[in-house]
Amino acid sequence: MQTGLRGRDLISLSEWTTEEIDTILEVASQLKRERALGIAHPLLRDRVLAMLFFYSSTRTRASFEAGMAQLGGHAQFIESRTTQIAHGDTAREIGEILGRYNDGIAIRNVDWGIGNAYINEVAEASRVPVLNMQCDLYHPHQVLADLMTIREKVGDPRGKTITVSWAYAASYQKPISVPQDLILLATRYGMNVRLVHPPEFTLMPEIVEAAAENARRSGGSLELMDDFDAGFRGSHVVYAKSWGALLTAPDETDGAAIAKRYTDWITDERRVALAAEDAIYMHPLPADRNVEVTDAVIDGPHSVVYDQAENRLHAQKAVMALTMG
Length: 325
Ligand code: CP
Description:
By secondary structure, this protein is of the alpha/beta class. The protein has helices at 18-36, 59-70, 91-101, 115-125, 140-154, 177-188, 205-218, 228-232, 252-259, 269-272, 295-298, 305-324; strands at 48-53, 74-79, 104-109, 130-135, 161-166, 192-196, 221-225, 237-241, 280-282. It has 12 helices and 9 strands. It binds phosphoric acid mono(formamide)ester (CP). The site of phosphoric acid mono(formamide)ester (CP) has 8 residues, from α2. Phosphoric acid mono(formamide)ester binds next to α2.
């Protein structure tokens, strides 16, 4: 277990060692157990977290806010469009000022080509830890919860196959941050990762190369595929979600037109039956029901989406307790 994590930012998990990530997950499991037993753990009494959102959220906002309250502190919800950020507050000013009011700053900014740079700029000016609640490149707190869930449901991830696949959705061009962070983390933990998508839905080449390097080091593997059915065959973890064609068509309308070529990329019972008998179905939510995944799958026996969503709470509490204490 690693100590001495106080004051650390969590913007990308690539800045954290595997041993440090293991520490987060160990603490998360301890806090989960204590909550189940009704044991209070006010580790951040009188501490305040600023939660700055440039983009909508259900789970991330609710779990960070509940988590701070359960740790004895408070979280303040700040929206970019209802503050003076819309009138010119700079990233540097946000880092300086919110860092003087708070004990941590959490930010969601998924604007393509902007979000990660913005969060890093705030962090450079901040005297307190900065936590990434999702940017254009990474969603570290989501994939921490995902890894925690895989360990709980499947056991040791080493040698297990995870299918990280694109699926069709009509609602909007979803960020690529979840699949990017997921292939990076799963390959670090020795999983056999299948990255499955139509040709227009590539992830950033440097991220895919980094995941391949992770796999070489851990003894896992990374396989690129474009056949949705083949991606399911024998897999232990099926993680199929939509993302935008951001690298080929950043424009929303162009991206939607490309996606329409692949409306049959829906996770249904036939496809889940191709996976391992005890395979789990994962999705970070929100999902486009009966477009991206059928009700029968997301509400069915293989689905672990609610336990996965719950683990956001425990994983984030661990990160906050370790970095903001
Ligand atoms: N999975 C996730 O980040 O959900 P929200 O967008 O609702 O926060």
